[in-house]
Amino acid sequence: MRVSEANWFQVEEYLKHDDRAVLPLGSTEQHAYLSLAVDSILSEKVSVDAAAPLGVPVFPAIPFGITPYFMAYPGSISLKAATYMQVVRDVLDSLYTTGFRKILIVNGHGGNSPVQPVTMEFMTDRPGTRVKFHNWWNSPKTWAKVKEIDPVASHASWMENFPWTRIEGVEQPTQRKPYVPFDKLKDRGPEAVREIIGDGNYGGLYERSDEDMNALWSVAVAETRGLLEDWS
């Protein structure tokens, strides 16, 4: 259940028989011709779709992440790493205080990965808690499905182009974009990054069929649900 569609009485009743929760992590950053909120949309939706049959609460995605390299693209927002890690820790502490003990973090943005040590510190400070950190898009089964469909896939390419991340009335380019020179991105500031990657797609087709995307989504949802079900 989406926490945004529940009240506190319902959550309290749930906690009488279960202590699992899902916390999606997103970002607000350029995704070429797709929504600036792609990472938040996808992390929350895959969480909701995975948790629905289990009745596990899904909290709203944290909408901002660590993305300093995209700050030359209007609409992108980046938090300092220290700020972001403190926000996540505060959220985890709040979940613990109100009764949750098993928390699945579903991350939609690679730049948020530095927060993983925070989960270890949290579990050290809060004995009896379990936290899993799940990059939904490159987890083993989902990434294998991406490669099966089309091995040329990256940020803002077809692999993030779902019906729910598209902007109405915006047409996608039809060509396959060559991979950007990733090695040149490692030591460049935001303006130089924009010069190198242009529209924001890191490489690959901009769009594939809904059949392909639905097949990929089914794998991602099932893999995420498996993590919610198995805490052994």
From TrEMBL:
Keyword set includes Hydrolase: yes
InterPro entries in UniProt: Creatininase-like_sf (IPR024087), Creatininase/forma_Hydrolase (IPR003785)
Any Pfam family: Creatininase
Cofactor(s) recorded in Swiss-Prot or TrEMBL: Zn(2+)
Protein family: Belongs to the creatininase superfamily.
Keywords for the protein's UniProt record, in alphabetical order: Hydrolase, Metal-binding, Zinc
Name listed for the protein in its UniProt record: Creatininase family protein
